[in-house]
Amino acid sequence: MIGQERRDRLRVVTMACAILSAAIVAAFVVATQREPPHLTSSDPPVAGTSGLARPHPPLDRAPGEPLGGPAVR
């Protein structure tokens, strides 16, 4: 009976190692692909930005002023 428990434990550890190895190889393959990034927008870049973010429009209130409106009391 002791031998069977050891074989079962060895089988579980072997499967876990195989799954972990496959995940590491898959992550390495995905991280090292040489495809160019896909263009998500054809808008011209805004001056002064890195192209990753769009500037927000200015707020209609001063800092610290409550939002107001019908939903806020």
Give an account of the 3D structure.
It is a single chain. The protein is mostly helical. Helix content is 41%, strand content 0%. The chain has one helix and no strands. The radius of gyration is 28 Å and the shape is elongated. The termini are far apart. The relative contact order is 0.05. The mean pLDDT is 79.
> Number of helical runs?
1
Task: Spell the H/E element sequence.
Answer: H
Helix/strand/pairing category: mainly alpha
Rg over CA atoms:
28 Å
> Can you give the mean pLDDT?
79
Proportion of residues in β-strands: under 5%
The profile of the biggest β sheet is:
none
Model regions low in confidence, pLDDT < 50 over at least 5 residues? none
Number of strands: 0
List the helices and strands and how they pair.
Blueprint: H1 2-31
